[in-house]
C-alpha cells in the first residue's frame, strides 16, 4: 500500500511529520537497513541516543535546553529516533531520560501555543498526538528515568512508559498541572493518568493541577520507585533487565491488550480532537491565561 505521509501500524495510519526527510521514500527494508542503529550513538540535535546493542537497549536523552519543552522540532526528532529503534530488531527496550539538569521535560512548549495561527496549532497538536500514540503503543519496554521536574506534557510522556523511576529531590515534582495554566488536559491525557493511578486520585489531581513531590508521587502510584538521584540510571537498568526477562511476544500482546482501547479512542477522533484543540487554544481568554502564566515564569527569575 502506497502512503505518502502515513504509515500503517496494525489497522492505524500514523502521521509522518518527517515524510519529507531524505530516505523517507525508501522501502521499509532498505530504510531499516540504512537506518540500523549499531553500536555507535546516533540521534539528532535534540534527542541523543546511546545504544547498547549487546544488551538490546538504548538510552534516549532529551536535550533541548533549557527545559526540554516539547517544541515541534523536539516532538519530530523524538518520533524519528523512536521509529529507528522500533524498526531495528536489535532493540527491546529504551530508557528515557533528560540531558537537561534538573528538568525531565517542562511539557508542551508554551511558545507553540501562543500567538500562532490555527494551521500552526493544528500541525503542533497532530505532532503531540503522534508522539503519544507511538509511545503508548510501543512494542519496546519503555522505562522513564525521571531526573528532574516533570510537569504536564513531561508527565504525560513518563506515563506512557511501562515503569517510572523518579529521583528523590523535592524540586522534581510530577503531575498534570494544566488547570493551573487555565487550560484543560484533553481526554487522552486524562485516560493515561486514570489508567495509572485510578479514577478518584486522577480526578483530584487533575482538578487541582497537583504537582506531586517524590514521596507523594510514589504513594499515589504516579511513579513506581523513588531513589537517590545518583541511582536513577542504575535502577532503571536493573528494572529494564527484569522486564526483558519476559518473552517479548507475551509481554507485547499483554501490553497491547491493556492499552489498545485507550489509544483507539484517540485514533477514532484525531481530527475532531485537533479541531477542539485549535478552537480552545485560539480563544482570546486562553491566550491571555497562557501569556499571564509565561509572564509569571519569567518573573520568577527577576
Ligand atoms: C489546551 C489543551 C491542553 C494542552 C495540554 C498542555 C500541556 C502542557 O504541557 S502545558 C505546559 C505546562 N508546563 C508547565 O507548567 C511547566 C512550566 N515550567 C516550569 O514550571 C519550570 O520552567 C520548570 C520547573 C520546568 C523548570 O524550572 P527552572 O529550571 O527554574 O527554569 P525556568 O522556569 O527559569 O525556565 C527556563 C526558561 O524556560 C521557559 N519555559 C519553562 N517552561 C516552558 C514551557 N513549557 N514552554 C516554553 N517555555 C518554557 C521559561 O519561561 C524560561 O524562559 P526565559 O525566561 O526566556 O529564560
TrEMBL record:
It catalyses: a (3E)-enoyl-CoA = a 4-saturated (2E)-enoyl-CoA; (3Z)-octenoyl-CoA = (2E)-octenoyl-CoA; (3Z)-dodecenoyl-CoA = (2E)-dodecenoyl-CoA; (3Z)-decenoyl-CoA = (2E)-decenoyl-CoA. SUPFAM superfamilies: ClpP/crotonase (SSF52096). Its EC number is 5.3.3.8. One of its GO terms (molecular function) is delta(3)-delta(2)-enoyl-CoA isomerase activity. Keywords: Acetylation, Fatty acid metabolism, Isomerase, Lipid metabolism, Mitochondrion, Transit peptide. Its main location: mitochondrion. Signal peptide: none annotated. InterPro entries: ClpP/crotonase-like_dom_sf, Enoyl-CoA_hyd/isom_CS, Enoyl-CoA_hydra/iso. It is found in: Mitochondrion matrix. It is an enzyme of class 5 (isomerase). GO terms for cellular component: mitochondrial matrix. Pathway: Lipid metabolism; fatty acid beta-oxidation. It holds the Pfam family ECH_1. One of its GO terms (biological process) is fatty acid beta-oxidation. Key enzyme of fatty acid beta-oxidation. Able to isomerize both 3-cis (3Z) and 3-trans (3E) double bonds into the 2-trans (2E) form in a range of enoyl-CoA species, with a preference for (3Z)-enoyl-CoAs over (3E)-enoyl-CoAs. The catalytic efficiency of this enzyme is not affected by the fatty acyl chain length. Belongs to the enoyl-CoA hydratase/isomerase family. PANTHER family: ENOYL-COA DELTA ISOMERASE 1, MITOCHONDRIAL, ENOYL-COA HYDRATASE-RELATED. Homotrimer. This is Enoyl-CoA delta isomerase 1, mitochondrial. It comes from Desmodus rotundus (Vampire bat).
Amino acid at each position: 500500500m502506497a502512503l505518502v505521509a502515513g504509515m500503517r501500524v496494525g489497522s492505524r495510519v500514523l502521521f509522518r511529520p518527517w515524510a519529507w526527510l531524505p530516505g523517507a521514500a525508501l522501502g521499509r527494508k532498505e530504510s531499516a537497513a540504512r537506518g540500523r542503529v549499531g553500536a555507535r550513538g546516533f540521534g539528532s540535535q535534540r534527542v541523543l541516543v546511546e545504544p547498547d546493542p549487546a544488551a538490546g537497549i538504548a538510552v534516549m536523552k532529551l536535550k533541548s535546553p533549557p527545559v526540554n519543552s516539547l517544541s515541534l522540532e523536539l516532538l519530530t526528532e523524538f518520533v524519528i529516533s523512536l521509529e529507528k529503534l522500533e524498526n531495528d530488531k536489535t532493540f527491546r527496550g529504551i530508557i528515557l531520560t533528560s540531558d537537561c539538569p534538573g528538568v525531565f521535560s517542562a511539557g508542551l512548549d508554551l511558545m507553540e501555543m501562543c500567538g500562532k495561527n490555527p494551521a500552526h496549532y493544528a500541525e503542533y497538536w497532530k505532532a503531540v498526538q503522534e508522539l503519544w500514540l507511538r509511545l503508548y503503543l510501543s512494542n519496546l519496554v519503555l522505562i522513564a528515568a525521571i531526573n528532574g521536574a516533570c510537569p504536564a506534557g513531561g508527565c504525560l510522556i513518563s506515563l506512557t512508559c511501562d515503569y517510572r523511576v523518579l529521583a528523590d529531590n523535592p524540586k522534581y515534582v510530577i503531575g498534570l498541572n494544566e488547570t493551573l495554566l487555565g487550560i484543560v488536559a484533553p481526554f487522552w491525557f486524562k485516560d493515561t493518568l486514570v489508567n495509572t493511578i485510578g479514577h478518584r486520585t486522577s480526578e483530584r489531581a487533575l482538578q487541582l493541577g497537583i504537582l506531586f513531590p517524590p514521596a507523594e508521587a510514589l504513594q499515589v502510584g504516579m511513579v513506581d520507585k523513588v531513589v537517590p538521584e545518583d541511582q536513577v540510571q542504575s535502577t532503571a537498568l536493573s528494572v529494564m533487565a527484569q522486564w526483558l526477562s519476559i518473552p517479548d511476544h507475551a509481554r507485547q500482546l499483554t501490553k497491547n491488550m491493556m492499552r489498545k482501547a485507550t489509544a483507539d479512542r484517540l485514533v477514532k477522533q484525531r481530527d475532531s480532537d485537533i479541531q477542539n484543540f485549535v478552537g480552545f487554544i485560539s480563544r482570546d481568554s486562553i491566550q491571555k491565561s497562557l501569556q499571564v502564566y509565561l509572564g509569571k515564569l519569567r518573573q520568577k527569575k527577576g
